[in-house]
Amino acid sequence: MLRTLYWTKKGVIMLDQRLLPGRAVYRRFTGYRDVADAIKKLVVRGAPAIGVAAAMGAALGAIKVKAKDADGFKKKFKKVLDLLASTRPTAVNLFWAIERMRRVADSSGNATAGEIKKRLVKEARKIYAEDIRINKLMGGHGSRLIKNNSTVLTHCNAGALATAGYGTALGVIRGAVDRGKKIRVFADETRPVLQGARLTAWELKQDKIDCILITDNMAGSMMQKGLIDCVVVGADRIAANGDVANKIGTYPVAVLAKAHNIPFYVAAPLSTIDMKIKHGNGIPIEERDSTEVTHIRGKRIAPAGIKVRNPAFDVTPNRLVTAIITEKGVVRAPYGRNIRRLFS
Ligand code: MRU
Question: Against a cut of 0.90, is the pTM above it?
Answer without folding.
Answer: yes
